[in-house]
Amino acid sequence: MSQKEMSAKVEPFAAVKGMNDILPPDSARWEWLEDKVRSLMGLYAYRNIRTPIVEPTALFERGTGQSTDIVEKEMYSFEDKLNGESLTLRPENTPGVVRAAIEHNLTYAGGQRLYYMGPMFRHERPQRGRYRQFYQLGAEALGFSGPAVDVEMMLLVHELFANLGLRNVRIELNSLGLPVERQAHRVALITYFEQQLELLDSEAQRRLHTNPLRILDTKNPAMQALVQQAPQLLNYLGDASLAHFDTVKTLLSSCGVRWSVNPRLVRGLDYYSHTVFEFLTDELGAQGALCGGGRYDGLFELLGGKPTPAVGWGMGLERVLELIKTQGQGSRVLVPDAYAVIADASAMAVALQTLQALRAAGVSVQMHAGGAAALGSMKSQFKKADISGARYALIFGPDELAQNAVTVKSLRDGSGAQVIQSLADVASWAPTLQSRT
Ligand code: AMP
Question: Which of 33, 326, 356, 379 has the fewest Cβ atoms nearer than 10 Å?
Fold first, then answer.
């Protein structure tokens, strides 16, 4: 079979549904965002943690919760072929971070402030802003029990959004109090819903005894009146929980951050306590949740560690980038400062050495590369220089080589101005090529 016949038989592959390639020039926006995140995390003294993408399935069953949508139906789980262990592609990263903190005793000498960025996997119905592989930025502060760190967590997100130029993002807050307080509320909630069983949809009926708090989260329009009237957790909080919540609200306001209380904002898991929050936008349709988080003082114990207070959040980076686009911020395209036009292969060694010297001086240069036999005409090389977006062409021609020099031609300002620069001291003129943006 000829090469052609062989390739004709192969259907091209496509990416898995709900999982996306991030391609140039779009990838430049991702890098820009990631750079902003890293420098901000440095300012808040949060340090990077990188945990495996695959974890034991049982970690999420315990740490995310059996009765959540994630564990009930969204996990990519598989069996390890060698030992039969059930493994899962992480659907979120808080359990992984807590597992690592316990395993390496990270909090032995005091609190730890950590952040991560990376892909998560959930088998959901793909739509705009909802994917099966998506990227989350998350932060976790481990070992701090007071309300101040809850506020620090929200300030961090607030500041990141401000740095990204985002507008109209609101913060909703609630307090889940302590487990005993939630237990009293849970009893009242079940009694209330049991009296109106006929108004509950099948999902709510199923959750009534496993996770009644989650019924408050329903999107079903027919149940809105019912959940509006339901007993509110805030009315079951004791003095200490109310004081924690009041301090969070007061400190946020004193930092100029606006918030509103949403009594129906819940995380239906027992290891959550006190503060929960969400950052939301109305500009992305149904997928308006940009970031969600809260205090999870019970999780360390649940995963076999010592009792350790903790608070964290997770943010969907696709949604953040989508909002940046929606709000009209220009796309960021990376272009090289210069493109090297090389007349003839005999100039290649000099050209390569010069480009190395320019790069060492901080100039971004794209080298012309041709086929095995020839580099292509000067005309076609100039066309490629133009397409590259570079502001300068560097011309390595025979005349230039004879003088140990290169011609620098301006491509973008309409002048077409050319100057000859000596190859003897590249570092002295390299800064004139550097982009100032
Ligand atoms: P969660 O862990 O469910 O609280 O999610 C935290 C954040 O991750 C959400 O506020 C979203 O911004 C984002 N997110 C969650 N699920 C998806 C998904 N399937 N696709 C894209 N982003 C998601």
Answer: 379
pLDDT by residue (tens digit) across 408-437?
999 998 888 999 999 999 999 999 998 754
Candidates 3.40.50.1370, 3.40.50.300, 3.30.930.10, 3.50.50.60; CATH matching 26-177+237-326: 3.30.930.10
Residue closest by Cα to atom 16 of ligand 1: 130
pLDDT given for residue 3 in this prediction = 65
Cis peptide leading into residue 212 (ω within 30°): no
**Predicted local confidence at residue 437, as pLDDT:** 45
Give the torsion through C-alpha atoms of 71, 265, 161, 18, to 10 deg.
30
Residue 9 alpha carbon to ligand 1 centre in Å: 39
Chain segment 116-155, per-residue pLDDT in tens: 999 999 999 999 999 999 999 999 999 999 999 999 999 9
Atom of ligand 1 nearest to the CA of 126: 19
Q: Does domain 338-433 have CATH number 3.40.50.800?
A: yes
Provide residues with CB under 6 Å of ligand 1. Answer: 92, 122, 124, 129-131, 134, 136, 289-292, 314-316, 318-319
Closest to 311 measured CA to CA, from 152, 169, 162, 182: 152
Q: Which of 56, 91, 80 is nearest to 304 (CA)?
A: 56
Instruction: Write the residue with the smallest CA distance to atom 15 of ligand 1.
Output: 316
